[in-house]
Amino acid sequence: MKKILFPTDFSEVSKNAFIYALKLAESINAEIVTMHVYQLPQANYINVSEYLHEIYDVTELSNFENYKDEVPILRSIAEANNLDHIKISHVLILGNLILEIQKIINEEDIDFVVMGTKGATGLKETFLGTVATKVMNDVKAVVLAIPEHCKYHPIEKILFITEYKPEDTASFLKVMDFAKIFQAHIDCLRVEPVHHEVKNDYINNWNEIIKNKDIIFHSIKGDDVEGIILNFIDLHKINLVAMHVHHRNFFEKLFEISLSKKLAFHINVPILAIHE
Hints:
This is Nucleotide-binding universal stress protein, UspA family. Belongs to the universal stress protein A family. It is a single chain. With 276 residues, this protein is α/β, with parallel strands linked by helices. The chain folds into two domains: 2-147, HUPs (Rossmann fold, 3-Layer(aba) Sandwich), CATH 3.40.50.620; 157-267, HUPs (Rossmann fold, 3-Layer(aba) Sandwich), CATH 3.40.50.620. The protein is built from eight helices and ten strands. It has helices at 12-28, 48-80, 97-108, 127-138, 169-182, 203-209, 225-235, 248-254, and strands at 2-7, 30-38, 88-94, 112-117, 142-147, 157-161, 185-192, 215-221, 240-244, 271-274. Helix 8 (248-254) links the parallel strand 9 and strand 10 (271-274). The protein is elongated, with a radius of gyration of 20 Å. The two termini are 24 Å apart. Mean pLDDT is 81; it is low at 121-127 and 257-265.
């Protein structure tokens, strides 16, 4: 059976993302492993060793009680969506979030990481946004990030951000597999700088890959990359954005207001990040 890792911080953002984890689990016949990672508070005592055990006990008990209270809430979300047949297990860990995610991915042979993320407000990142970016950058797994205001919608149209180069091919094949699960259409988009001639040396290879598939290639010229992508998402009713991790700057910027066009909204569709 396939496995989905769902890191959670008990927030409404995480609970909203849990629906996507459940729907994905149903589609690929997977089980879900939820995990909460906590750290010990910083102690400023002179004789810290005398207090460390006490701090550990109090912190661990507090986190256990919180997690114990949250587990029924996750189960109720599954029941409300008629997905209570999905197998769900829970892990509470003391440690560093990124390191523990990497460890459990290797030990449990995780197929996907699904997690919630908050968009930036102006130019200021929130904690979850920062964590999601670090997970996508540092964890060698397919990560599905769900923005806080993204309400579940069946995945019917996927946008793959690419430059049509060989290094994007492996990720593109994974996106094709993902699209097949949901019988979704794929649009591939490259944003070309206005005053820079882009060669299409590899486009014939890409055309061979998509032969007889429900996939369309697009190239748009412009310097406002994020604005063009946002407009494309809106115009084509995109349900999910997929990208190779070396395009991660798109991910970070898409969660900020596009100041150049003064767009008063954030991206509100899931992002599928595929590591190099």
